Target: Glutathione S-transferase
Amino acid sequence: MVEPYKLFYWPSIQGRGEFVRLALEEAGADYVDVARREGGVDLLMAALDVEEYPAFAPPFLKAGELVIGQVANILLYLGEQHGLAPRTDPGRLWVHQLQLTIADLVTEAHDTHHPIASALYYEDQKPEALRRSADFVESRIPKFMAYFARLLSNPEPRDYLTGDKVTYADLSLFQVIEGLRYAFPNAMKKIEQEHPVLASLRDRVAARPNIAAYLASERRIPFNQEGIFRRYPELDQ
Model:
């Protein structure tokens, strides 16, 4: 009997752990979301204190004897194990590159509400957040979204970023679109009008059977004001 994966991430937010959850759900993999069980946060903290290959922070995944940290690194592994990445080296590296680009965008989204320090409350850095978000809305979201829209359109329209087969990068782009819709609905409405292929990709991923079942389940944690994507209307100008 194959041991289930063990995902270690905070129990009350989607955060960066959601990118891993989506891949596990799409793959139909057997996994335990450790911290969402009774006493799980204590297990998570203890798992951070291992002597060999310790993760800097959640999320990290235990796969048998392997312990893998960092979202892009976890997805690189899961993509190969579950057919969520191309088989060739150039293809695998390309999808990994796309995931790293998504990671850059996720960091910038987080920094809109915490531009000075993660340890400070949003209210303690609100003027800086307003300035940071103005640039994010005006230039950074459009630049990232135009890039992904181009990949979905050139040289001709395609179902997914690499062609007709879904990869973990598509699942992650779905999550980013969902998160930006939640945090910056005004900005995303305009961008999706300019780039309808983004909404098409989002809808295509959401309709995949395993993903649709997950989104409708209690396993999908709602967006909230503790995660990466937070809704502050004053920042969505």
User: Anything to note?
Assistant: The chain has nine helices and four strands.
